[in-house]
Amino acid sequence: MRNVVAVCLFGLCACRATPDPAQSVRVEGAVARPGPQAWREDSTALEVLLRAEPLAGEADLAHVTLERELDGERRVLELDLRRAFERGDTTFNVFVRVGDVLHVERRTQ
What we know:
The strands form two sheets. The protein has a five-stranded mixed beta sheet with strand order 4-3-7-5-6. It has helices at residues 45-51, 81-87; strands at 3-9, 12-18, 24-29, 35-38, 59-70, 73-79, 101-106. By secondary structure, the protein is mainly beta. It is 13% helix and 45% strand. The protein is globular. The mean pLDDT is 85. It has a single domain (20-106), classed as Outer membrane lipoprotein wza domain like (Outer membrane lipoprotein wza fold like, Roll), CATH 3.10.560.
């Protein structure tokens, strides 16, 4: 079941469904919409990240980490999603799984 978030301001209302945490991928860091993002069997890291809206000028797509539980151990994989976004290079644009966590670093000055 999905939760529905409603926001009303000056008599105008908007609502959106939030994904079921049991069927989602969590996105953290330099994004406008952190938290759970809907998962589908064919969801890729870049697709999920774009739904979370990386912060323009702040999100470092070349330094994204993917945390995944495998065989009872937490594994961390470094992803360069800038290559997928800018050049279409899918080397690091892996399929995500339910329970994965993507963390987007902020650019350093």
